[in-house]
Amino acid sequence: MIRIARNAGFCMGVRRALDLVRCLAAEGAGPIYTDGPLIHNPEIVATLEREGVRALRKGEAPRRGLIVIRAHGVSPARREELRRIGLPLRDATCPDVAKAQAIVRAHARRGYEIAIIGDRGHAEVEGLLGYSEGRGRVVGSRADAAALPPGRRICIVAQTTQEVRLFRDLSSLIRGRSAECLVCDTICRSTKERQDETAEIARCSDAVIVVGGRNSANTLRLAEIVESAGVRAIHAESERDLREEMLGEAARIGVVAGASTPPWSIERVAEWLREHRR
pLDDT tens digit string along 216-257? Predict the structure, then answer.
């Protein structure tokens, strides 16, 4: 039995960013540069490069074309750096990320310390930190939560693709150490639905194939959810990564995919399964 998740593949923010750069390319806007890889999927990044869309290199300041801020968003300081390059600037920040940025900025200006539950170094998290005006800390573990100074006024937000259970767990710990605590659940609906369905599929499967980029945080979280259910997670960027021996004796196989995984990658994995696991 093969079960493919309904909530698999591009989320709204990724689709919106892709539509923007492809429309710009079709209009002949000239060289199109993105501030970092548009999404965390190597196949899509390679396809975009063939279409004239590529990521800015560190320190690069092109003289023609335009620059697109990717779905993960950027800090105010980085936005100003991009403006100084002098090319037209288009914004593909996911609306859910922009909402989280606004919450961080508003509460930092009201004197709250900002606890960002997310992955240190992730592009979205770095952008959120920039809106905290020096009052933000990244909390990615129980140890990070325990290290926060006690007795502060704290506003908690989440990386929009954070794991729901971890967010709730760490929020509870932080709340217990705070004089005042505002918990703003900024995890996007698409992420919650994807994670809920992944957990459901894992409970009914002997193995689950998780399709998506190896540098995609939300894809890695899906694999963690599968493994936390005691089920084997097989992370594959494409069907080319799969081998029959990976599945062993598994009779019930699930397929889930990250938010930056193109639909054709999911379909190719499904075709591979239909061919090898009849």
Answer: 999 999 999 999 999 999 999 999 999 999 998 999 999 999
Q: What is the pLDDT of residue 119?
A: 95
Task: Provide the mean pLDDT of the chain.
Answer: 94
Q: Which residues are catalytic?
A: 124
pLDDT-derived band at 277, boundaries 50, 70, 90: confident
Residue bearing tokens 């995984």: 261
Interhelix angle 123-131/76-85, rounded to 10 degrees, is 100
- For 87-153, the DSSP string reads S-EEE---HHHHHHHHHHHHHHHTT-EEEEES-TT-HHHHHHHHHTTT-EEEE-SHHHHHTSPTT-E
Those residues whose C-beta lies under 8 Å from the C-beta of residue 243, and which sit 6 or more positions away, are none
Collapse the DSSP code of 249 into the 3-class scheme (helix H, G, I; strand E, B; otherwise coil) and give the result.
coil
Q: What is the CB neighbour count within 10 angstroms for residue 169?
A: 15
- Crossing angle of helices 189-203 and 217-228, rounded to 10°: 30
The answer to whether the CB of 226 falls within 8 A of the CB of 180 is no
Q: Which of 222, 214, 237 is nearest to 190 (CA)?
A: 222
CA dist 112 to 54, 65, 95, 178, 181, Å?
Answer: 38, 40, 23, 11, 9
Q: Which residue type sits at 27?
A: E
Which helix (DSSP H) or strand (DSSP E) does residue 191 occupy?
A: helix 189-203
Reduced to 3 states, what is the DSSP secondary structure of residue 274? Answer: helix
